[in-house]
Amino acid sequence: MSDKKVSRPCHHCKSKSASAQTDTSKIHYEKFWLYRHCSSVQQRDRQAQKAGQLFSGLLAMNVVFLGSAFISSMIFNKVAITLADVWILLSILKVLCLFWIIYYLLGISRQPHAMLYRDSHAGAIWIRGSVLLFGSCSILLNVFQIGYSTILVHCKSRVEIVFPSIGILFICTQAYFLWHHAKDCIQVQHNLTRCGLMLTIATNLLLWLLAVTNDTLHVEIESQLREVERRFTGKAPSSPPHRCNETTLCTCPNTTICKVFQKGYILLYPFNTEYCLVCCSVLYVMWKNVGRRISHHHIPHTKPKFKLQGVVFGPLLGTSAVIIGACVFMMYQIQATSLVPSRQVFVIYYSYYIVLLPLMSVGAVIGTIIHALEKKELDTLKNPTRSLDVVLLMGAALGQIGMSYFSIVALVATDPRDLLNSLALSYSVLLIFQNITQNVFVIDGLHRQRATPPGKEEDTKEEQNREAYSQRRVSVLELGQEIRKASLSYIHTYSHLSWKRRVLREISFFLVLCNIILWVMPTFGAHPIFENGMERSFYGYSTWFVIVNFGLPLGVFYHMHSVGGLLEVYVTA
Fold first, then answer.
1. Which of 126, 202, 421, 475 has the most crowded CB, counting CB atoms within 10 A?
2. In this structure, are residues 46 and 34 in contact, taking their beta carbons and an 8 Å threshold?
3. Mean of pLDDT values over 385-400
4. What distance in Å separates the CA atoms of residue 113 and residue 23, rounded to the nearest whole number?
5. Domain ends where: 293, 322, 346?
6. Is 15 contained in some domain?
7. Could you tell me the residue range of the domain that residue 386 belongs to?
């Protein structure tokens, strides 16, 4: 009788109910032919899990090396391996990933007992929202590329239209897959799932690598813009790109739609690299969670909620930084889009950073000291999402740190006493220090155990007030009384927080708002490190293009990921 109950399909298993079940017959232990003679089922399961991770990792490594060899050959030998050959290889990989994702959605995920557990820490709403945001921008980027290639179809290959078309289908399918299944701890077909996830990760890495190194269309558009500048000023441009002569036969006609495609492509280009990086991080967590069985103590009984309580000065300072940054950004965008950007706008831009970065560094150092003074235990439970957060914070910071060191070398070697050069030099040094101090603060905060929330009785009263408020029609006088009660509750909560937790919340919220504006500015087109021309003239156009396209998306991803980590620190405080 019990066997029949066990074999009955369970299509709507929730994480809590699944974890509470002790019937081991529902557990699909992993098997691998190398370890089929193990005496213990658990030991065979652990060895099979390690072997599956090893072989799927080897698959991804070989795919990445093959694609990297194609891309490198395209860079150094454009005759034997062309950009179209690289696009064909990536199109094949995209199609294979599409087949696997469709099979996962329609086959693997619908099998009985396939998803007995779900990782509550994985696939946070902000990172899945980032997948949708960057995915939408990447779709628009491909649309602009298709439109631009269609207008110039007489001098462009058909592959330049087919490749972005497949890319749109791949982005839509992958975004849907990650939005609905980012928390999955799949319990069936472990090896096939791991290989499919690793193949998708490798494909996204190769798309990111191609976006970083391929400056063909940028050089083409740059040459046309400089041609317009030459006609406008009546003289030759001061520093023409190194491949202008290759693009003279394929010139965009003087139409509004073509200019829109050009501007849209350049504006949305960083979003594509961001999309690839975010997808890789989510897919890696899914890969680590394949076959994972979550015990009771891993499942939170109460999901922490973000409440704007206990902070006053952090939101005020952070909002001021956001407003000033938005003004600087709009001023920069107006000046930088002109044919001859003024020197003053670069001075204002760097001055804003030189004032903001030390404040962020001081706040992070104070927060780290308070963490050291606290007697809060460290959270030592196994958590793949948190481990990945730490790796991503450290890895993404390398983008900005690397660009800063390249800038320091170029600026010191040219003329460090110049005003603009000295500001850019100070900006690079302060950026390195700010990244390091913020990483220490966030990583230390992520490993602290959650504090017990103060004023539980006040929270219960607030919930009762909200229920009563929703059940009756409130007059203007009653509404004023409710606002007054909420304000008193806010002040009461703020006064009952210890000074350490209060300062941690102030610092965390201030850093959240600062990272938001530092994420928005480079994401939507403020790139003075490329547009001021100092480092570009020192390293050359193509070399500095690769450095910036490698470091800039990582920098944007770092600030975006820091927001999530800082919000977690804010909640745990």
1. 202
2. no
3. 82
4. 12
5. 293
6. no
7. 314-449+493-572
